[in-house]
Amino acid sequence: MPKIKKYWRCHRCGTTCPIKEGQTIHCSCGASSANPEAKQPTRKPVTMAACIHRGKVLRLEECLPCRGAVQMKIFACDLHGECSLATGSSVRCCVSCGDYLSERLPDSAAESSPVIGMNEQLALSLMKAPSDHRPGIWRGGVLQIWTTRTCDKSCFACTQGSNLAGKPGMITPEQFEQACISLWGYFGVVGMFGGNPASHPQFDVLCEIMRMHIPYEQRGLWCNNLMGKGAIARATFNPEVSNLNVHLDQNAYDEFLRDWPEAKPFGLHEDSRHSPPYVAMQDVVPDEADRWNLIAGCDINKNWSAMIGVFRGQLRAWFCEIAGAQSMLHQHEDFYPDTGVRVVPGWWKQKMPAFAGQARKHCHECGIPLKGRGSLAVGGTAEQVSRTHELVHRTKTKGREVQLVHLRSELGEPLDRVTDYVENARL
């Protein structure tokens, strides 16, 4: 057998594992360190990282890609609770945050090759929990508090279903306060989310509650139209961390400039493009391993937010805003499961294994990882949905075309990154 280096990087999927001389590692993708190709990895080797928040060793854990051939050290971590030194661990690898001491591959390179034989456990180890930092977005993370899905717009492929008919629902002030209290200590942006939150009849009360519990620097508003609530919004929200897309509405844009001069509205002259979230992968991608590969690289999970919402009258939390939206849209179905976690102080500190049931249900029923080309939010021509969500997908705009998707090819040329909404509208 050829001499093996201390760290072996799989030539096929890029997984890095520690190795003793003379030992053979069998990667989960089917490759082996005994393969001569392993001596010339196709990608640059990664220096093993060390999180600056890392503390003492808590325990040893089997490395998943090595199938138990190597024991990984799991460390106490002041920021993450626990962290490891390799992506093969079931806990978050410290290179997933920005606070590490050594070099890493760019995200695009790390995600360029699908893992053959991907499964739920491996996918969860690559996904981001609400407590994980997301480099490149506001304050390293966003967590939304849903207020309503009612909205004065009816954008094509709205993730929250504000384009759909039916009773939209509202959070109560008591529930909103409980949600805010549960996020004490959260590091990122706490967003008031909809729909359009300004359409909530108790918007001013919700704002007062948010000012009591969330620091100004962290208070964000997701809003397309102030609807006469400019003064209260200005007193409550930090414009630097607010998402104010007016969706081509001149009157809404003018109101932002007049009543909240510090606000940064956008979208007056450019539409947005929404990939269809309700084309369920399970309806168009038959192979489960292929779906887990797509889920592990989901743009919403990597770049956007978790969410607190209301399911059957009870406050619940989900690791993903679309998981929450799915639950609330289907909550009137008798046998639809309650997948949300209880909203108690610190719920957001849990790692992805605590949200495994949500991923198992909602990720396979989501279309975002498919990166479908979708429609322009305002100037679109048709909605796309698949069988899983067909019954709840009744548009509130009469006569709007709805296409029932049976094949992945019907989604068109995939987008590069779904969350580049305005940039994708230029395609």
Overview of the molecule:
- The chain is α/β, with parallel strands linked by helices and 427 residues long.
- The protein has two domains: 7-117, no CATH class; 118-427, TIM Barrel, CATH 3.20.20.
- It contains twelve helices and 15 strands.
- The protein has helices at residues 107-110, 120-126, 173-182, 203-213, 230-236, 250-259, 281-284, 288-296, 299-303, 321-330, 356-363, 421-424, and strands spanning 7-9, 16-18, 54-62, 71-77, 81-83, 142-146, 189-193, 219-221, 273-274, 305-311, 314-318, 341-342, 375-376, 382-385, 401-404.
- It has a six-stranded mixed beta sheet. The protein has a three-stranded antiparallel beta sheet with strand order 3-4-5, with no helix packed on it. Strands 1-2 form a two-stranded antiparallel sheet.
- A hairpin with a 6-residue loop joins β1 (7-9) and β2 (16-18).
- α2 packs parallel to α8 and α10 packs across α11.
Rounded to the nearest angstrom, the radius of gyration is: 22 Å
Q: What ranges have pLDDT less than 50 throughout 5 or more consecutive residues?
A: 1-8, 11-15, 35-50, 94-112
How big a fraction of the residues is strand? 5-15%
Question: Mean of residue pLDDT?
Answer: 84
Helix count equals 12
CATH fold naming of the largest domain: TIM Barrel
Task: Kindly list the characteristics that best describe this protein.
single chain, 21% helix, disordered N terminus, 6-stranded mixed sheet, 2 domains, alpha/beta
Draw up the topology in text.
Layout: E1 7-9, E2 16-18, E3 54-62, E4 71-77, E5 81-83, H1 107-110, H2 120-126, E6 142-146, H3 173-182, E7 189-193, H4 203-213, E8 219-221, H5 230-236, H6 250-259, E9 273-274, H7 281-284, H8 288-296, H9 299-303, E10 305-311, E11 314-318, H10 321-330, E12 341-342, H11 356-363, E13 375-376, E14 382-385, E15 401-404, H12 421-424
Parallel strand pairs: 6-7, 6-10, 7-8, 14-15
Antiparallel strand pairs: 1-2, 3-4, 4-5, 9-13, 10-11, 11-12
Helix pairs in contact: 2-8, 3-4, 10-11
